[in-house]
Amino acid sequence: MRTRVLGIVVLACAFAGAAVAQTKITGTAHCAKGDPAYSIDVSDHPGHSLMLEKAACTWTTPIEIAGIKTKDGVDVRTIESTATKMTSSGTHVSTMENGDKFYVSFHDTAAVKDGKPGDAMGTWSFTGATGKLKGLKGKGTYTGKFQADGSVDVDVQGEYTMAAAAPPAAPKKK
Predict the structure, then answer these.
(1) Cβ contacts of residue 139 below 8 Å, gap of 6+?
(2) Burial group, residue 8, by CB count within 10 angstroms (0-12, 13-18, 19+)
(3) Can you give the chain as a three-state secondary structure string?
(4) Domain count, the chain
(5) Which structural domain range is residue 119 located in?
(6) pLDDT on residue 168
(7) pLDDT at residue 137 is higher than 80
(8) Residue 102 located in a structural domain
(9) Is residue 134 part of a domain?
(10) CA nearest 28: which of 59, 50, 1, 55?
């Protein structure tokens, strides 16, 4: 009986450690028109082009992670555009108020009409972080609304978990 109880306690502890609570996050970023921005026509179909751009972003409604708020960031992305559809993939690097950074991989699509993109819908996931955010994991979705000046307002939703702190090292024996 004692062995059975001990086994149940061990299993309960194992599951409790594995069930890390996820924290929901939301925020809004304004990303300027890409600068630099490069575009090359593919020439196989009208309106088909490949682009590479870098855009500075400011968090107008910051995301808060582990008690620290986002401040600004940068997107670097590739874009493939046709007469009817645009897809992009890239990396976003955000800087927090304390100087820590997190890295995000993102992918989105948008309909194109009359040469202008509609709202982009995409997914993202954390790929790394520095400082107090080291061990950050999570993912989510976003919507991007393109503005007439070439900038985009991005509404972000998702969730994150932080890696558990490692236990202190045992003192060395002399």
Answers:
(1) 123, 124, 125, 126, 158, 159
(2) exposed
(3) CHHHHHHHHHHHHHHHHHCCCCEEEEEEEEECCCCCEEEEECCCCCCCEEEEEEEEEEEEECCEECCEEEEEEEEEEEEEECCCEEEEEEEEEEEECCCCEEEEEEEEEEEEECCEEEEEEEEEEEEEECHHHCCCEEEEEEEEEECCCCCEEEEEEEEEECCCCCCCCCCCCC
(4) 1
(5) 52-162
(6) 60
(7) yes
(8) yes
(9) yes
(10) 59
Reading the block at residue 87, the tokens are 């897809």
Q: Is residue 12 situated within a structural domain?
A: no
Backbone angles phi, psi at 65, to 5 degrees: -125, 125
Give yes or no for residue 10 having a pLDDT over 90.
no
Residue 25 vs residues 5, 36, 61, 67, 139: alpha-carbon distances, Å: 39, 30, 11, 12, 10
